[in-house]
Amino acid sequence: MVSICNVTPVCYTSSRHRSFPVFKKQHPDIQLNVNTNSREQIQESLLNASADYGVYFSCEEEHPILDSRILDEDELVYCSKHDLLSDPGAY
Q1: What pLDDT band is residue 9 in, cutting at 50, 70 and 90?
Q2: Which residues pair with 3 in a beta bridge?
C-alpha cells in the first residue's frame, strides 16, 4: 500500500529522524511518500483526496471538515542576546 503524506518543511525536518522511522516500523506494509507543502496546501490536498495524511504545526482551531489529532507538543523557545521583552522599542 502506498500512502501520500504532505508535511510543512519545518515538520519534515523535525520528524524525519524521529516520527517517520517509528511509523515505518509500526506499519511496514505502507510505503510512505512524503511531500512538503504549506498548511493551506496540505488541507487542500486532503480535501481533494490527493493526499492521505497531512502534518503541520498549528495554533488555530481544528478544521471544520478534516479529522485533526495532536501528535506531539513542542516548546517554542525565545532566544536573544538582548532583552527585547523588557524593552521592545529598542530595535
Answers
A1: confident
A2: 32
